[in-house]
Recover the amino acids of this structure.
C-alpha cells in the first residue's frame, strides 16, 4: 500500500454522508455524472462514495411473481464526502442536483445511525498482504487447489490476475482476493 492510499483511507474515515436533492427520476444520472466529474477533476480524496438506496420487492403482475428493485427515496442521492468549497461546488453544480438537504448554505451530515437506517453499508475491506510475483493457492471457485503466481493486482476492484498451470501451459485467470491465500 502506498502512502497515497493510506492518506486517502484516513480521509475516508473523516468523511461524512450528506443527502443531495435531485430531480425525481434523475438519481442514477446524477450518480453517474458525479462519479464522472470526481474522476475527471481528480477529487477522489474529497468525494468517496455516491449511493442511491434501493430495495427489492416482489411484483405480482398477471399472476407472475417477479423480483424488482425500486428507489427507497426518490429524488435523493447520498454522497460520502469531505465538505470544502471545491467539493461543495462540484456536487451543487452537477446537472440534475437541486441542492443539499439542510439550511441554505450549510449541508448537515447524517449520523451513523441514520446512515445504517438508510441501508447504506459501510464497506470495510480487510487489508490484503499480496503483491505481484507472490505465489498463491486458489481456495475457492473453478480453479480451487491450483497454485499460481500473481501477475497484477487491482485494490479498487479487489481482483488479481494470476498465472496458473493448466494442461501444461501457463494460463492467466482473474480472481477475487477472497478466492486465494498466500503460500
Amino acid at each position: 500500500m502506498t502512502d497515497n492510499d493510506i492518506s486517502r483511507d484516513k480521509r475516508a474515515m473523516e468523511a461524512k454522508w450528506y443527502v443531495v436533492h435531485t430531480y425525481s427520476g434523475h438519481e442514477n444520472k446524477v450518480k453517474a455524472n458525479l462519479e464522472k466529474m470526481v474522476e475527471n477533476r481528480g477529487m477522489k480524496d474529497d468525494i468517496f462514495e455516491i449511493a442511491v438506496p434501493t430495495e427489492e420487492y416482489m411484483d405480482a403482475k398477471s399472476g407472475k411473481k417477479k423480483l424488482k428493485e425500486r428507489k427507497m427515496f426518490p429524488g435523493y442521492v447520498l454522497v460520502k464526502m469531505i465538505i470544502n468549497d471545491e467539493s461543495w461546488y462540484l456536487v451543487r453544480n452537477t446537472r440534475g442536483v437541486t441542492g443539499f438537504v439542510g439550511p441554505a448554505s450549510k449541508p448537515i451530515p447524517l449520523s451513523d445511525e441514520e446512515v445504517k437506517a438508510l441501508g447504506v453499508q459501510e464497506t470495510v475491506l480487510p487489508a490484503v498482504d499480496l503483491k505481484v510475483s507472490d505465489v498463491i493457492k486458489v481456495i475457492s471457485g473453478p480453479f480451487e487447489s491450483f497454485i499460481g503466481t500473481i501477475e497484477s493486482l487491482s485494490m479498487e476492484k479487489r481482483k488479481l490476475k494470476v498465472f496458473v498451470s493448466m494442461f501444461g501451459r501457463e494460463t492467466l485467470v482473474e480472481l477475487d482476493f477472497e478466492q486465494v491465500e498466500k503460500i
Summary: Residues 135-182 form a domain with the SH3 type barrels. fold (CATH 2.30.30.30). Helices lie at 3-14, 27-41, 85-92, 112-117.
